[in-house]
Write a structure and sequence with these properties.
Elements (H helix, E strand, L loop, with lengths): L17 E5 H7 L14 E5 L7 E5 L2 E3 L10 E5 L2 E3 L12 E8 L13 E7 L6 E10 L3 E10 L5 E12 L4 E2 L11 E14 L2 E14 L4 E6 L1 H7 L19 E2 L4 E2 L5 E2 L2 E17 L2 E18 L7 E6 L6 E6 L3 E21 L3 E25 L6 E4 L2 E19 L8 E18 L7 E21 L2 E12 L2 E2 L8 E2 L2 E14 L4 E13 L2 E5 L8 E5 L1 E17 L2 E20 L6 E3 L12 E13 L2 E12 L22 E14 L4 E10 L7 E6 L5 E6 L4 E10 L1
Length: about 725
Amino acid sequence: MVTARRTAESSQDAPVSLTAFSADTVDKLGIESVADVPAYTPNLTISEQSASLTAASIYIRGVGNQEPSAVSEQGVGVYLDGVYVARSAGAIFDLVDLERIEVLRGPQGTLFGRNSIGGAIQLISRRPSEDMEAEIRAGYGSNNEWHGRIRLDSGRLGPFAASLAYSHQQRDGYVDNLLTPASHDPGAINSDAILFALNGDFGDVTVDYRLDWNHRTGNGPYFQLLAATDDFRRFFGASQTFGGDPFIISDKRLDQGLQAGFINRDGELDYGSSARIFGNSLTVSYEANENLTLKSITGYRKFFQDTILTLSGQGNLRGVVLDPVTYAPTIAPVVPFVGNNAPQNQWQFSQELQALFDFDTLSFVTGMFYFYERADEFNRQGLTFVLPGGQAGLNLSPTQAFGGATESMAAFGQATWKPAALQERLELTAGVRFTGDRKTINLVGDVIPAVRGKVEYENVSWLGSASYRFSDQALAYVRVSTGYRSGGINPRTNVINIFEPEDVISYEAGLKTDLFNRRLRFNLSAFQTDYDNLQIQQFTAGTGGATARIVNAGKVRYRGVEAEATIVPVDGLTFTGSIGYLDPTYKTFLYRDPVTDQVINVADEARLPQTAKFNAHAGAEYRTPVGIGELSARLDYSYRSTVYYFALDRVNPFNREVRSRPDHNLRARVALSEISLGDHAALEVSAFGNNLTNQENIDFGIDFGALGFGGASFKRPRTFGIELKANYR
């Protein structure tokens, strides 16, 4: 059962391409955050960004956003219990106690609306149980990783039922930084999370309150240099000559290295990061009569991050530095790039009102949505700009600081009709949404005097779909939908760089089947997405630090297919599989040549950033009763083709060097469950492994362009673990 259309229905009845994961599946697949979902989902890419513990770039069918700033809009909407999580900088958090995950592919411009131009990811937490229950689990794994979770259910006490879940995770790093202890090595983490849920059932009125909290501290993955210019290598390669640490550069994954820290905002040498995510929501539902339900969803969320940007992969280097005024040379500490993003703050308030009507053959939902947020960042950076020839450099300390506010209002409606004359086999759906956005931004830091900008946008998105159920086993549908991603003002420059909204129109046809007495489920969809005013980030790091321009580069057409299958040939044995294929064609990609100052069309050069053209998954699970319980074994293989992180090689000369090559991942899990501990308790013992072939591949890459180097962080090496889980009911 899913809520892809704001009402509960079977996933096989929803005329939309979606993938859903139950709580049991989330456990068996080892999904700990949204970053783990793409391995099992067609045409979904999520990249965990270097240095940050919570930032992600999320793309569905080639549509997304790679900018993690506190004022940048997402291309894929993330929703937690119906509340929009506005910032990709806080999109990775511990999934403490989920009922299910839903991934909706394609524009969700009517019912979800705000910046869900590529699709939506819904995270739905578990409701409190009607009975008193308890669950506890604990595990240990590679890199001295400990994890545990406990959930307590009060059961129904009068009109109320409550649940409380707490989880803890900690591990040492998986790359040995010779400058820190193991608990502070790259990849180390210490995380605590809480989810509290309260349900009130008052007959026609139900009230659901959710509170989630996550505190993460640790160190981002080791970011190592992969490629550099000759001048860059010459300058930093002389470090040992002047008494500094050796210069480290390698295109292979390093298990040991040097990663110097940075002076944080408190004046102390720091190597790590911390983040706090807090949110709560209140959902009130009133069943006015058998045909009408009124619903209110109120949400408030906060996000804070303090991150040391260790994006050099170097120790304490030394080199020849020129005084910026007298040009007198001295021997001094030098660094390719480092920084402190602190503080990064964001808070948001949202209110949604819905009216759901359900008659015999006609149902529709209508409502209004309001959203307001404020966000700010203060980014101190340190870098050595290498002068031509590589004999000397300039030590620079640029500061980027900005803040902004966003206000958005929308009204929407969607109706579905099933003609009685056709035994309700035909379903026709139409929807429309009006959105108005207002945004302001202040650029400060090195911008003197401060610059203030303001933009306003309006949009009308619509949807039309038709589906026909040929039998209880087969449903076919066609769907046309549009989407909108707000424009804005780029925070990464020292001038007002305004970019316009993106618009898409998507055409999709699909088939959903349950065949051979439900032994085979096969779903297929084909789509075409026409993209206009594509927003592209052009990374332009230089003496001003890690800067970028955002431009509306032009038009692109995406075509692709998606297929998912589940096969149960005999009781106890299940095979699952999926594939996603995406073929992008740029119609126009406008670029201003810095030499001629002419705008030219470079569509034939453009790449699709942060998206794989092909991904696939194959899994097998066998379950059988044994003397003391049930034995299960599961094996999952995932493949993803090459991912580039930037659109143009001419802007990012190390784009090929920092790309993520084709990725293969093999996971396994063996469990013995339903071990009786008495009349009301049961135990499960499991062992699991990830990246079993120990593949070395890039997780996230950055080309620093004019600074003369490119680098990346690599995926975590092979891991193993064991877990115990006990239930009391």
